[in-house]
């Protein structure tokens, strides 16, 4: 499983899938990760951890991603405007 950092808060994340998981099956099939790449309506895409995804507004923009910060290992928040 590939690792990288969240575009929002910077925490290390694992990305599901990829070439490293081509020959794995069953419980370790590469379908579990701690991040997902989202494409926004403004044309930008961002790899975000699940805590950051959880605090984004319904119609997120890249400005919302810029406001994300890590609170602890399990939660994120948006900085005030």
TrEMBL record:
It holds the Pfam family DUF7561. Residues 64-81 have a biased composition (Basic and acidic residues). Residues 61-81 are annotated as: Disordered. InterPro entries: DUF7561. This is Small CPxCG-related zinc finger protein. It comes from Natrarchaeobius chitinivorans.
